[in-house]
Specification:
about 220 residues, alpha/beta, TIM Barrel, 11 helices, globular, binds erythose-4-phosphate
């Protein structure tokens, strides 16, 4: 299972990288636009900050433009994965980029049918948007669970990457469904490290230990 962080902030990636739980970074044009550096510099800096994939979305909406951007992104880091929106032009651009051996997949996905078409085109990943499905009144978890069942039934190797995951409850349901990969915004990831009963339990242990010294107080290790 892979866990990604959804951010364009190099500082945030460095902060969470040390926890050891994140495998890569997803971005989108809105996140990159919120930085004060260029698209290329953002992707290069993220690539330096993590030993894992950095997802970068194309801006063009025509096939030639998407392919040109995808080729360029591919050179911006050792493990850049090109994100292409789920449009007819996007599927064609995906086909072209994958034929060249470039890692690329389909994003802004809302249906099992869109996901299947991407997997048939040998997409590296498919990113359904759970939160936005629920904004539209659909059961986002059920749609993604159905995608995972479909991918498993066909034996597709495309990674199912649940995106637009905004709450700890949504993330937990995706884990229980055994989804291949989940990307979380920093605040949702942060929330997963905490539980009020954990804080309460630790406070109790601290109280009972009182002012006794650390078992390795001299820190000599001997
Ligand atoms: C995926 O990579 C997208 O960046 C992201 O998950 C979208 O989330 P949102 O719907 O909360 O903007």
């Amino acid at each position: 299972m892979r866990l990604y962080i959804d951010t364009a902030s190099e500082e945030t990636v460095r902060e969470y990288r040390s926890s050891g739980v994140i495998d890569g970074v997803t971005t989108n044009p809105s996140l990159v636009a919120s930085t004060d550096v260029s698209y290329r510099a953002t992707i290069e800096r993220l690539s330096e900050a993590i030993d894992g994939p950095v997802f970068a979305q194309v801006i063009a909406d025509d096939v030639e433009g998407m392919v040109a951007e995808g080729r360029a992104y591919d050179s911006w880091g050792p493990d850049v994965i090109v994100k292409i929106p789920a449009t007819p032009a996007g599927y064609e651009a995906l086909e072209r980029l994958r034929a060249e051996g470039i890692e690329a997949g389909i994003t802004v996905v809302f249906s099992i049918a869109q996901a299947v078409l991407a997997a048939k085109n040998d997409a590296t990943f498919v990113a359904p948007y759970v939160g936005r499905l629920e904004d539209a009144g659909e059961d986002g978890i059920d749609v993604v669970t159905g995608m995972q069942e479909t991918f498993d039934a066909y034996g597709f190797e495309t990674e199912l990457l649940a995106a637009s995951v905004r709450t700890r409850a949504q993330a937990t349901k995706l884990y229980r469904a055994g989804v291949d990969a989940v990307t979380l915004p920093p605040e949702t990831l942060e929330a997963q490290f905490h539980h009020h009963k954990t804080a309460e339990g630790i406070a109790g242990f601290d109280d009972d230990w009182g002012d006794r010294s650390s078992p390795v107080a001299d820190r000599s290790g001997e």
